[in-house]
Write a structure and sequence with these properties.
Structural class: alpha/beta
Order of helices and strands: HEHEEHEHEEEEEEEEEEHH
Helix content: 25-40%
Strand content: 25-35%
Radius of gyration: 18 Å
Number of helices: 6
Shape: globular
């Protein structure tokens, strides 16, 4: 048994299984964000937890109650437009019902832009899934690019830093019924002006941080697993020397100590 796995395990009959549904993994993976799924799998397996991954692509319906966590990454404009229409026409109602029952939804970059009401892209308005109160507009100015870090408070009184990389031409503006995922410490954030980054509504989270995100923020991956599985106790710690080094490097790249 590996050092990681030896730290903690479940009896097979009792081990919960994290069920993940990746939306459009063949189209929405422009920034290697499939690495986020690999991190979730490994951090489950190292602890003896089950992990089950399925996908839902264009034209494929979502099956209610079959996933604890839904994930959507970023894509090129053409692919994002295809996915936006498919989300609105085939998956919106089920995804909204799943979020309402407490399933986690994690959307990164282009996927984040589709969580809201609409995305105005070069004279075309792409429909959003309407999970959160936000709108995105493709601006005429330069793309918002660079290493970034934000301060988040996922649990009351527990503030942590998420570090990653952003590269987006869209400017996202939260409505009055939405709150940001975090406060920008370094980088541009949602629109480069209001100091906010991402969005959080219950278990629905959107962010522009990628590169991918979870290898640089293993603690956040653990929070997602705990929340998606509704665990009563925190996950047991792993030997995260490499993960902590990756996080420290990402922080330094963003200009933080």
């Amino acid at each position: 048994m590996s050092t990681r796995a030896a730290r903690w395990w479940w009896r097979v009959s009792e081990a919960p299984t994290l069920r993940v549904c990746a939306l459009y993994p063949d189209l929405m993976n422009i920034y290697a964000d499939r690495g986020n799924l690999i991190v979730l799998r490994r951090r489950c397996e190292w602890r003896g937890l089950g992990f089950r991954l399925r996908s839902a692509g264009l034209g494929e319906p979502l099956e209610p109650g079959t996933a604890d966590l839904y994930y959507i990454g970023g894509g090129q404009d053409r692919d994002q437009a295809l996915c936006a229409r498919d989300l609105a026409e085939r998956k919106r109602d089920v995804l909204r019902a799943e979020a309402a029952r407490g399933a986690v939804v994690l959307a990164v970059c282009g996927g984040y832009q589709l969580l809201g009401h609409e995305y105005e892209l070069g004279g075309e308005t792409l429909p959003g899934v309407g999970l959160v109160d936000l709108r995105t507009v493709r601006a005429q100015g330069p793309r918002l690019i660079g290493n970034a870090a934000i301060e988040v408070e996922l649990s009351p009184g527990q503030r942590r830093v998420l570090a990653g990389f952003e590269n987006h031409g869209g400017r996202t503006h939260l409505g009055p019924d939405a709150r940001p995922l975090g406060r920008v410490l370094s980088g541009h954030g949602n629109n480069g002006t209001d100091g906010q980054e991402g969005v959080r509504s219950g278990n629905v989270i959107g962010t522009y941080l990628h590169g991918p995100l979870l290898p640089k923020n293993a603690w956040f991956a653990d929070w997602l697993i705990e929340t998606a599985l509704s665990l009563r106790e925190p996950l047991a710690p792993l030997d995260d020397e490499l993960e902590q080094a990756a996080h420290a490097l990402a922080r330094r790249a963003a200009g933080l100590p």
